[in-house]
Amino acid sequence: MLQGIHHVALICSDYQRSKNFYTQVLGFSVLAEHFRAERQSWKLDLALPDGSQLELFSFPSPPERPSRPEACGLRHLAFKVADMASAVAHLTACGVEVEPVRTDPYTQRLYTFFTDPDGQPLELYQTPVVVVD
Questions:
Q1: Both 56 and 83 in a single domain?
Q2: What pLDDT shows up at residue 133?
Q3: Containing H/E element for 31?
Q4: Per the domain annotation, does 66 fall within a domain?
Q5: CA dist., res. 118 & res. 131, Å (int)
Q6: Which of these, 52, 105, 126, 133, could form a disulfide with 110 (CB 3.0-4.6 Å)?
Q7: Contacts for 93-99 with beta carbons within 8 Å, 24 or more apart?
Q8: In terms of pTM, does the model score above 0.85?
Q9: Tens-digit pLDDT profile for the chain (133 aa)?
Q10: Domain that holds residue 45
């Protein structure tokens, strides 16, 4: 039945700032970009390397959503990385504040958190490198 996650949708407060963050800092590719005049809203479809997508929306004066302390709803969005040190170094070089890297006590994998321009918690989670012969 379900085959995976197709996309995650986020609403941002400053469209250009968030577009720059997700394309220039995180490196997502733009699939499509549309301005919906009737809603005064942008919709940006972004591609991740694994084929999943992120939809970025803007709306005039969106209400803030509580994130911390642990609010009900989406807790965070996690992205796979093969090399935690390189990913953290890239984010830091781009001026993104990254929490100290920790080890998941259950999987022994490295992970860390940072936020997007609107404070949405984002996670980097190191996955094993798969070698194909």
A1: no
A2: 66
A3: strand 29-36
A4: no
A5: 37
A6: 126
A7: 94/24, 94/25, 96/25, 98/124
A8: yes
A9: 767 788 999 999 999 999 999 999 999 999 999 999 999 999 999 999 989 999 999 988 888 777 666 777 778 899 999 999 999 999 999 999 999 999 999 999 999 999 999 989 999 999 887 666 6
A10: 1-61
Determine if residue 61 is left, alpha or beta; phi over 0 gives left, psi from -120 to 50 gives alpha, anything else beta.
left
Angle at 50 between CA 13 and CA 112, to 5 degrees: 60
Exposed/middle/buried for residue 5 (C-beta within 10 Å: 0-12, 13-18, 19+): exposed
Residue 7 lies in a domain: yes
Q: What does the alpha-carbon distance between residue 126 and residue 129 come to, in Å, rounded to a whole number?
A: 9
